Amino acid sequence: MEIEDLRTFIEVADAGGVSPAARRLGIAKSIVSRRLIRLEKELGIQLLARTTRGAAITEAGVTFREHAARICAELDLAHEMIFPGGDLRGRLRIAAPLTFGPSHLAPVFAELARQHPALQLHACYTDRYVDLVADGFDCGIRLGYLADSSLIARRVVSMRGSLVATPGYLREHGEPETPEALLAHDALLQGTESWRFMDGDKIVTIHPRGRFKADNGLALATAALAGLGIAALPDFLIADHLASGALKRIMTRYPPPEAGLYVVWPPTAHPPRKIRALIDLLIERLG
């Protein structure tokens, strides 16, 4: 079984067809098709159902893709262990936040790809929670506070956040002075999250309520600027609005705990060198 056949199958399965996979790999469609046929013949099963609109992965293909990806990852790791100073190879799939990602992380990803021409780097930007293992990502970058999980995490840089609202909202509804007072206000939320505040050495947790929700920090900042309520946002997102006076920090006696930007990845005895290279570059550029 050829390793190129396995990598090609994974690419076709992820891209949803022979043509997009060929473009990603930079090879002719005929080569992609020949590798797929050879792999299916050797396995004795159909991995992809060909249609006029592309190639849909079969149930057997879904199962085999997980094993094929694991085999390729192990081979990449073995290559790194044997040649620790060699070029980074294989593919690095990163789940990155849509808020902050395109503006701050994309240049770092581009630089990593420039430094390592043999590395395939695929970044997916979304503010929704991503299951790295189920969705086939090598690592993720997360902002804020990390929930308990089996993932391994490395903090890249500390981050601060603030509770903000427009002066107009505060004139109309009053300015809360304690965490408990927030329960009488409209909160701008991503979902059903809780808000945490420092009261001296103690952490106070509340569960705010609000009618406006969005899964993106920029959208919440826009809602705050429209006077719809109080938002808890990272300082990098609201610095200009604070400087102009469009938004005002509130409850500064009860600051949110220090947050961070983290790189997280599934447990492994030896973190892949490509993830270590990403962490080093993020620290160099952002830390």
From TrEMBL:
Occurrences of domain HTH lysR-type (ranges): 1-58
Keyword Iron-sulfur: no
Pfam families: HTH_1, LysR_substrate
Top-level taxon of the source organism: Bacteria
Alphabetically ordered keywords of this record: DNA-binding, Transcription, Transcription regulation
GO terms, molecular function: DNA binding; DNA-binding transcription factor activity
Protein family per UniProt: Belongs to the LysR transcriptional regulatory family.
Name this polypeptide is given: LysR family transcriptional regulator
Natural source organism: Cellvibrio polysaccharolyticus
Origin organism lineage: Bacteria, Pseudomonadati, Pseudomonadota, Gammaproteobacteria, Cellvibrionales
